[in-house]
Amino acid sequence: MFRTLSGRFLILTAAFALLAEVLIVVPTVARSRLDYIEARLEAAQIASLAAAAADAPLDEALEAELLRNAGVYNVALRRDAMRQLALSSPIPEPIHATYDLREAGAWSLIRDALVTLADPGRRIIRIIGQPVQDGGVLIEITMEQGPLRRAMIEDGLRVLGLSALLILLVAALLVLAVQVLLVRPIRGVVDAMRAYAAEPEDARRILTPTATVIELREAEEALRSMQLQLTGALRQKERLAQLGAAVAKISHDLRNILASAQLFTDRLEETDDPLARRLAPKIVAALNRAISLCESTLAFGRVEEPPPRLARVNLASIVAEVIDGERLAAGDQDISFSEDIPRGLMLRADGEQIHRVLLNLVRNARQAIAATGEAGEIGLRAWEDDEAWWISIADTGPGLPPKAREHLFQPFQGRASKGGTGLGLAIAAELIRGHGGRLELRRSDETGTEFVIRLPKEDSALSPVADRPPLPPEAAE
C-alpha cells in the first residue's frame, strides 16, 4: 500500500492532518486557559466589589462563599495607588508560580498553557490581570491549577474531536479526488501500455488520449506518438525481414545458377572464335561479381553473427595470410603491399573473424586502387597501448566517394567502390563491435583512405572508445 500513489498520498494527508491538529488544538487550549482565568478574574472582581460595598465587615461564612463562587482563595484589588486585600482565605499549598496577563503575548500564553498541561500536580498559582470596566489598576488572585487544567483538557478534547472529524472528511474527499483525477487515469494508461505491449502490431491497441488533466493529457499524447512510431517501425521491420528472407532464398538459388553459368563460361576460353575468347574474361568477371554479391547477401541475411571465440592469436600471421591472398588476386596490377606488425603482438580475439575483417578492408583497398588503373600501395600497421590494440589499414587510392562516407557501415548504401554492395564494411564493423571494439574511418581524401580498428584489452570490453585513435609510436616521435 505504501508503494502506491494512493497509499503515499494517504500517508501525507495523515501527516498534514496531524500537523493541522497541533496548529488548531494548541492555540485553542491556550485560549481556553486564558478564558478560564479571565472568568475567574471577573468573578473575583465582582466579589471584591460586593465586599467593598457592604457597610459592615463580612462574616467568615459570607466571605468564604464569595471566594468559593469566584473559584479563588484570595483577591487583591488595586483601585488607586493603594493595594487592598479585598477577600482572603487560607491557602493549602505555597504559591507555585505567578502569571502576569497584562502584557502577555501569544507565544507566552501558548508556553504557559503547555506548562499547565504538563503539570498534573495540585498547584497554587497567582494570577495578575487587568480589572474589567476600569474597575482598578490591577487585580491579583490566587487559585488552584487543577480545575484550570481539567477545563483546558475538556476544551482541547472537544476541539480535537471536532477538528479530527472535519480533517478526516477533508482527507477522505482528497483521497477520492486523487483516485478519480489521478490514480484512475494513470491505471488506464498502464493498462493501455500493457495491452499494447502484448500486441504492438495491432493499431487498435494504440492509446487514445482521454484525460482532462493537462499533464496527464500530455503524457497520453506523448505515449500515443511513441506507439505510432513504434508500430510503424515494427511493420517496416517485419516487411524488411520478409524481404530479407525472400532475397536470401533468391540469392541462394541465383548463386547456384551463376556457378553453373561460370562453369560453362570457362569453356569459352577454349574456343577458336577470337570474339568469344575476348569476351570470355569479361563474362567471367561479371559472373564472379554476381556470385560475390549473392554470397555477401546470404552472409548478411543471417540473424546475427556468432559471438567471437576469444583466444590469444598472433596478428602478424593473420596479416601475412591476408596479404598473400590479395597479392595473388592483384596479379599483374601494379599494387604493392606493406606491413608493420610486431612479430610478438598477440591479440585476445577471434582469429577467424579478425581475418574476415582485414580481408574485407584490404580487398576494398585493392579494388579501389585497381579501378584507377594506376599504381598504388596498401599498408597495414599495428601497435598497442595500456588500454587497447590498434590496427591501421591505409591505401593510396582515390578515397571514398562522398556518398560512401555519408552512409559508412550501412549495408547496401556505403559502397566503397563502383559495383560494390556496401556489405563488406557493414559486416566488418559488426564483427569488431562483437569484440567490444570499434572500426572507424580516420581519413579519406585524394591521397588515400585509412581505417583504424580498436580492440580493447579489458575482459569486459565495455571501456569507452576513444574519439580519435592514438598515433603509432613511430609517428608520435
UniProtKB/TrEMBL annotation:
Catalytic activity: ATP + protein L-histidine = ADP + protein N-phospho-L-histidine
Domain of life assignment: Bacteria
Annotated ranges, domain Histidine kinase: 249-459
Keyword Cell wall biogenesis/degradation (UniProt): no
Stretches assigned to coiled coil: none
Spans through the membrane: 6-30, 159-182
Alphabetic keyword roster: Kinase, Membrane, Phosphoprotein, Transferase, Transmembrane, Transmembrane helix
Entry keyword annotation includes Transferase: yes
Comp. bias (Pro residues): 467-477
Alphabetized CDD domains for the sequence: HATPase, HisKA
Xref: Gene3D superfamilies: 1.10.287.130, Histidine kinase-like ATPase, C-terminal domain
InterPro entries: HATPase_C_sf (IPR036890), HATPase_dom (IPR003594), His_kinase_dom (IPR005467), HisK_dim/P_dom (IPR003661), HisK_dim/P_sf (IPR036097), Sig_transdc_His_kin-like_C (IPR004358)
Enzyme Commission number(s) of this protein: 2.7.13.3
Pfam name, any one: HATPase_c
Region (Disordered): 454-477
Example of a GO MF term: phosphorelay sensor kinase activity
PANTHER family documented for this protein: SENSOR HISTIDINE KINASE, TWO-COMPONENT SENSOR PPRA
Name of the featured protein: histidine kinase
